[in-house]
Amino acid sequence: MRAIINIALKQGVLDSAGKATHHTLDTIGFKDIVKDVRVGKQIIMELTSTSQDEAKKEVTSMCEQLLANTVIEDYDITIEE
């Protein structure tokens, strides 16, 4: 079973990497194409769980305890067979 975790800064939290990326895209000719950029991280892990519900519960616990700073970051979990 595979877990895919996408972590990004919450709306309202300054995303300096996103701002820098947006500025660079503007500079190299994509000014009128890109409205905003948010930069996050993705974690992909292979799990030994056999139940999707159990896997989601375990990965949620991992996110809450270590993988995400829940004060400033949101996370989304997808579990694949």
Task: Give the biggest sheet.
Answer: 3 strands, antiparallel
The shape, in one word, is elongated
Overall average residue pLDDT: 97
Give the distance, in angstroms, between the N- and C-terminal Cα atoms: 5 Å
Number of separate strands: 3
Tally of separate domains: 1
CATH superfamily heading: Phosphoribosylformylglycinamidine synthase subunit PurS
Largest sheet, order of strands side by side? 2-1-3
What does this protein look like?
- With 81 residues, the protein is of the alpha+beta class.
- The chain has one domain (2-80): Mth169, Chain: A (2-Layer Sandwich).
- The chain is built from two helices and three strands, in the order βαβαβ.
- The chain has a three-stranded antiparallel β-sheet with strand order 2-1-3, with helices on one face.
Which SSEs are present, and which pair or pack?
Layout (H helix, E strand, L loop, with lengths): L1 E8 L6 H15 L9 E7 L5 H16 L5 E8 L1
Antiparallel strand pairs: 1-2, 1-3
Notable traits:
single chain, about 80 residues, alpha+beta, Mth169, Chain: A, three-stranded antiparallel β-sheet, 2 helices, about 40% helix, about 30% strand
